[in-house]
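Journal club prep — side note

Before the paper discussion, L.F. wants everyone to see what a predicted structure for a comparable chain looks like in token form. Sequence:
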Amino acid sequence: MGHKHIFCAAVLAGGLFLSSPAEADVYFGADFTYSDFSYKDDNQLFFSDNYNAIGPVVGFEVNGIGVEGFYKMSDNTDNDNGQESKLKSYGADFVLALPTNEYIDFVASAGYVHHELSYKKDDGSKFKQSGKGPRFGIGMQFNLNRHLALRAMYHYTSLTSGIDEFDYINEVTAGIRIGF
């Protein structure tokens, strides 16, 4: 994510925070992510197409509208040819939480993500490729109490630049949020 994108997100988030009479809720958490990459050509199995990743999440919200930043990293994963690759991702989402009742919120998000794939060739040499794109999500949050919640979401990312072998990414995330 470029410096201009981060600056715009920070200004927008600050505007939400300052314009609202309600108190902002800051939260931290972690997500487990299952990522399924869609190849443009199924005969090119350069990278693995499935990754399991985990990472921290930090965010804040005012009246159900918020901004969330995330970072995640997978372990080494073997592709169909037995070669190792690894996924790192980071980005930010604008999040909208609509309460359905006291315990369950409907959650939608829109953001931008940067994926970096590291690949180890048979000869031991390594290289990296990165891809960026818009990310959209939908899911549910289960509020155990005012400070603790469980969240499950589906995310779709369209890769608009970078990794030429892939079209898009489907992700399922499950995680915890601890609010202050």
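L.F.'s comment for the group: The chain has one helix and nine strands. Keep this in mind when we get to the figures.
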